[in-house]
Amino acid sequence: AGSGAAGSGGPVKLAFVYATSSQNPFQEMAFGAKAAAADIGGVDLALSAPTGINGPQEVTQFLSTIHNSKDGVALETLTPDLFVRPLNQAADLNVPVVAVDTAPPAGTKVGLFIGNSNTELGKALGEEFVKQVPADATGEVVLGNDIPGLGLLQQRLDGMRSVIKAKRPGLTISGPFDSGSEPTSNFNNWNDIVKAHANAIAYLGVGAQDAVSLALIQKNTGRKFLAGSCDPDTSALQAVKDGYVFALASPEHWLKGYVALRLLAERAKSGKALPTGWWNTGSLVVNSANIDQIIARQHDEGSRKAAFKAETDRQLANPSGYLRPLAEAN
Amino acid sequence: MDAALAATGIAKAYGGVTALAGADLTLRAGSVHALLGENGAGKSTLIKIITGAVFPDGGSLLMDGAETRFSSTAHAAANGVAVVSQELNQFPDLDVLANLFPMREPTRGPLLRRAEMLALARPVLRQLGVDVNPRRRLGTLSLAQRQLVEIAKALIVRPKVLILDEPTSALDPASSARLLEILRVLRDRRVAVVFVSHLLEEVLSLCDEITVLRDGRTVLAGRPRAELAIGDIVHAMLGSLPPVATRGTRRGVDAFGVELVDVSVPDRLSGVSLGGGRGEIVGLAGLAGSGHTTVLEVIAGLRRPSHGTVRLPDGRAAPRDFRAAIRAGVALVSGDRRRVGLMLDKPIWENTAQVASVALGRGGGLLRVGPLRAAARELVDRVRVRPATVDTRAGLLSGGNQQKVVLAKWLAADPSVLLLDDPTRGVDLGAKAEIHALLRAIADAGAAVLLCSTDLDELGAVCDRVLVFHRGSVCAELTGDSIDQHTILHTMNTGVVEV
Amino acid sequence: MTTQLHEQASSTDDQRRRNAVLGLATRAVRAESSSVLAATVLLVLVIGALRPAFFSVGQLRDVLNSSVYVALLAAGMSFLLSMREIDLSVGSIFGLSLISTALLMRGGVSPWLAGALGVLLGGVLGLVNAVVVHYIAIPAFVATLATMQLYRGLAVALGNGQQVTGLPLDDSFFTVLGGTELGLPVSVWVLIAVTLLLTGLLRFTPFGYRVRSIGSNPDAAAFSGISIAGTRTKVLVLMGAVGGLAGVLGLAFFTSGDPNIGTGFELQAIAAAVIGGTPLRGGTATVFGAVFGAILLGVVSSGLVFFSIPANWSSFATGLVVLLAVAVDSVLRSRRRARESAFGL
Amino acid sequence: MTTQLHEQASSTDDQRRRNAVLGLATRAVRAESSSVLAATVLLVLVIGALRPAFFSVGQLRDVLNSSVYVALLAAGMSFLLSMREIDLSVGSIFGLSLISTALLMRGGVSPWLAGALGVLLGGVLGLVNAVVVHYIAIPAFVATLATMQLYRGLAVALGNGQQVTGLPLDDSFFTVLGGTELGLPVSVWVLIAVTLLLTGLLRFTPFGYRVRSIGSNPDAAAFSGISIAGTRTKVLVLMGAVGGLAGVLGLAFFTSGDPNIGTGFELQAIAAAVIGGTPLRGGTATVFGAVFGAILLGVVSSGLVFFSIPANWSSFATGLVVLLAVAVDSVLRSRRRARESAFGL
Ligand SMILES: Nc1ncnc2c1ncn2[C@@H]1O[C@H](COP(=O)(O)OP(=O)(O)OP(=O)(O)O)[C@@H](O)[C@H]1O
Ligand SMILES: Nc1ncnc2c1ncn2[C@@H]1O[C@H](COP(=O)(O)OP(=O)(O)OP(=O)(O)O)[C@@H](O)[C@H]1O
Ligand SMILES: [Mg+2]
Ligand SMILES: [Mg+2]
Predict the structure, then answer these.
(1) Tens digits of per-residue pLDDT, D122-154?
(2) What topology is assigned to C31-330 in CATH?
(3) What are the transmembrane regions (chain B) (predicted)?
(4) Which of B70, B224, C254, D289 has the fewest Cβ atoms surrounding its Cβ within 10 A?
(5) Going by CA atoms, what residue is nearest to atom 17 of ligand 2?
């Protein structure tokens, strides 16, 4: 990307464009972005997102953003492949762009991707699950997918499946089935899946809502089974705390937003060039061991910022420790 | 006698169109008041203003001597002024009973009292000869039945002032007679009745006073019937002498036209054979349900006969669906103009183009507004629509003029078989005569014309032959001088010709 | 002829009296759209035959329970459709009422009072819709499309984009409303009550007549002195209150508030009402039909789960089964429609 | 009186001739819903005044470009609405055509041929809708609600739930259709062409008159010999083909196929058509209005980005601005409506 805007006086104009304003994971990233902007100071940060997940509309908003926030844009999207032309357009306008959460599509000049590995995330949940069952366990494990057709959820599922297959060959894996993203349909679908696969030993999802629904089912029916999922929404954390969910694999969304904006802001303020490659911010398994700590961390924006400070300082002090070639992103 | 209701100096303009320019109407209890005038004279508008459906631009309304203004027809009805409007204001999806009590349903607490509604409605419906289950959906009723329901709705109010805007235009003679009888009874009960009709004989047989409107003005104000001769009334309405209706010289049937051979339709027609030659106007008469309109439906392909054959002028069997029939040259003019005739929200020219240019695509693949409007202007002149602008939306025309537009849209298709079901419903005296002349001209040009009409005079005035139906078959064929109202009426009621 | 007519009339009378006993019941069932009920039952039987696990009391109860929210919205929607109006904001009203009630509870308001306020809020949101429609003079479709986003936005903003948890789950509000009585979930009992109430309102009160009159012929309604704006306002408020009630029931069952809850319910509710036999062109409505329509959709989505459809094919399968179910309904219905063929002079 | 009438007629004639030059243009603009255009322009001016960055050529071009898909769907939808029908499957037709075209290309079909097949596929999907509506005899609303899921499901299943990438982006298909000519994106030129074509179809052909006739009074249309089923089939196929075209253009721009693309477009398209001045009750339509309606919605969602609205409030703000824009449109429109008193209908 082009030269920095250092020394231009007024606040630098940055933006964070993300998939939807109404779901928690994306909001976490936005919180992170806000925190980074506040830490640097003198940043005019615009946050935009469609109300629901809507790729084309996000493209529209991104295109507006590159006209408005010329000092840099962090783009978080679930449909990166729609952004080939828009990203090239940003490059033409010399607006630096950082891809967040999903790797930039081929054919674009975006050099920096900040995200966790969703395959790793799935594997982490898989490992956590494996700890719950003996090596010779037999039976059925049921997988669910909130949004069929969404690449990163598929990666999580693939990661999970590979671990279970390798380490617990006695188990049969069913699904993934459509578990639905809207809360009531997610509950209804899981409720039916649990009954249709009544003998399964575990039900694993890849979205926060899955944990919420699986906990409620256990509460309602009094039946206990192994349930695990990803993303640390408030009520999903509560489900872990209540003991209905053995673990949540958290992609640490907040970190992604923070690091992305921090790097963009520094570039804009001081002309420090953006690194290139895939910056893996890592992930975290939330289970009974750390649940109280995480719930405290997720209390509000301030508590998040405080809790993540050590981690962000660590990562920003040593970029090369987290950077890998872009092509390895998964 | 005191005036029960007096409207003075009522004015109303719609945009540039003046509907009323200072009209007066004074009604007395115990008197039937005929309100007459050409199509578009302003009768319906005056009535809408009196009953609160439309706000006047000027004028005043006195009821029992006190200045009044109704905010709605419901308000008027609550004050004893009931109206049977010309364009049926009904709810086709609701049942008959619900249609009888809009805004005045009897209730107990929050609930309707259907039983009481039924008890109130039964006698009125019976009196009017409406034999339908009050729980039937109104939309499934025939136009005549719906008209009677509309009348029943007004009668149920037990009004002090009853205003009927062309209540008989869709009714067969028996129903009309029944209604007139009811009105006579109401007159004796000291109800003030306003009666609008284009059937002069009917009006004159009943009314006590006459008001005539012309171009929105009262030109004859509440004169006693006895003082007036028909000629005076017509002169007042038209501003000229009435056109003389002539049957025209009957031409020989020069060619084969439509033909039904041994046609049966379950429950409707049993083994009917009849023919209508090109150049001939054949009338079909009968009581409601006797099957005469079914003949039109069969020819038009709206109904499939279970037996028998139907032939069109080209000698081929009539198509079995409606669109093919139209393409083969059949036209079907219905008196139920608002339901099946017109697009009320569209200008006249779009309505007149609907069959020939739009449905049949005769204007080619590209339709230009200019030529369509020009064609419409010609048609509008032919059937005498007023105002003669083709850009007026059809819904804004007076009732009679709407009917003329329906006729015009079918004339545009240049039919070889013209089927008419009450084609002059609500059309005024002068225009009716001209339409009759027009029908004759169309026949002379080689079309076969079949006419059903509730107006038996009309059959007499234009038909070369009249076929009378009784219970699904033709019971008599009347020709020449034997075609008169009395003979037709007797025959359709009894099934035999008077000797 | 008069005699003949009288004879006919009195024979009709006789018949009517004879049928009076059975009449009301059969008429009620027929008027209230038996075809969609039959299609639903058929669907349940077919699924049950193929997957016996589906055919358990618990499962059927769950299907009912999960259909409650859309069914309530559909019941309200049938009023709107029958007067040729539509409300796209119902899903958001559902969500916003749910979130607000949850926030009130978390803020310390007693749960039952919070629930009552939630229903009230729904009514107020409906009133806002009515005010917008009336004063901005735009079609309800556009107005509620905008308020759909507005209300959803409020639901997100009020909860600060987070789920609302930490509610007093031991309170009788949750145990009663989220519980079971006489073998059925309480929310199903509420649905039954609301269905009966709304059916009564639609069929046996002047208000119901007004609603259907307007849908049947708006011009005639205005001519008859029916206030279209007034009736529309009442119906929109009713719709809002029903949406609020659905939200409160939803909270009682789900025990936490998610700002996205109810997204897409508007289309499902309209679909349920239309499948149930309330046409978009207005004039008629059936609350029972709308509720059964929602249950039909619930059976489809629930039943499909028992066939282990891969996630990538689930949407396809859902569409297909909805189509089949509706086709069955249509076949059953067409026998009735044939009786009332309307094309003729 | 006859003289008077003639005078009136000929003066009208005179006037008509006098206005003939300007007449056509003004009439076209007025008929084609100037109010939504005015509201859009006003909105652009206001946003531009507050945030000058919005007021750049590039930005406005981007708004146009991103409105193309919904605008095309809205243009087709205006035909359907004007005959009192609706198609909820357009978003899925868009997505499925896009995905299928992408798969064809990846399968080695030449991109332009694949594009043509994509449009054709859209038409076929529309035909499927028509067949379902006709033979199952259900309202288009329900039929297309089911096919919406069906087609979406196919889009997901065909691509095996994955995005389709790896297309030959150097092909002229992508460089031309996704490129810019004479200062405007090619897809905008296509939109302009389609808008003119559909307007011509609607205003100057018997087909267009039939469509509006049916919407105005279906019974009268049937009684005039217009085939309702036949016309509906043609319109649904047209809608499908336009959806397919939108999908192909979308692919050319986005250069990859996402199975969930176009979700929710159906409501946006209907909203755009209604905002543009095509009422749900049928009888009239304006293709231009529908397109401007879509652009209005595009301006709202683009413009809001320029105001730093807190994320949690963005949905609320969107709803609010849509409401404001529509209110402006309504005010402008009502001045016109006042001129055409609405009584007598
Ligand atoms: N809403 C309206 N807008 C414009 N013009 C109208 C409207 N209503 C009526 N008119 C016009 O006012 C005039 C009087 O109409 P009105 O319906 O009162 O006539 P009428 O005497 O009842 O005729 P008919 O015998 O045909 O029923 C007509 O020229 C009609 O076109
Ligand atoms: N032998 C018969 N064949 C056919 N129809 C008969 C016979 N006897 C009596 N009918 C009566 O004729 C009725 C058919 O009415 P149809 O609609 O054909 O008449 P219509 O003249 O069109 O009436 P309307 O003027 O009300 O439209 C039946 O309801 C039936 O009662
Ligand atoms: Mg009149
Ligand atoms: Mg008949």
Answers:
(1) 999 999 999 999 998 888 988 999 999 999 999
(2) ABC transporter involved in vitamin B12 uptake, BtuC (1.10.3470)
(3) none
(4) B224
(5) B289
